[in-house]
Amino acid sequence: MLVKKGAVIPLAGIAQSTGRIDWSNIEQRVFIAATSTAEGAFCLPDDNEVVPLKVEVVEGQLILPQYPVKGRVSCKIVSHSRPR
Asked: Is 6 left (phi over 0), alpha (psi -120 to 50) or beta?
């Protein structure tokens, strides 16, 4: 897969079918390279509304300051590049 630097890619766990995807536990894969922010979008199938995601580097840590589906979806942020 080719990914643009500064991207956030939501990733659900492996499921037998799309009807069995656990939408309450999503991993946010962050490709942040030389930038201090990464952006993406996320949509829960039941909501049918795309919400923006923005991950920032604060004191060397990746944070998601605003998570529109907080409380309904747990989020794990995984970096695929070293924040600066």
From this structure: left
Residue 28 contacts by C-beta under 8 Å, 6 or more apart in sequence? 8, 9, 10, 11, 40, 53, 55, 64, 75, 76, 77, 78
Give pLDDT tens digits for 70-83: 788 888 888 876 54
In this predicted structure, the answer to whether residue 22 has a pLDDT above a threshold of 50 is yes
Identity of the residue numbered 82: R
The answer to whether position 2 is within a domain reads no
Residue 71 belongs to what domain range?
7-79
pLDDT recorded at residue 69? 81
Q: How far apart are CA 74 and CA 82, in angstroms?
A: 23
- Compute the distance between CA of residue 8 and CA of residue 27 in angstroms, rounded to an integer: 10
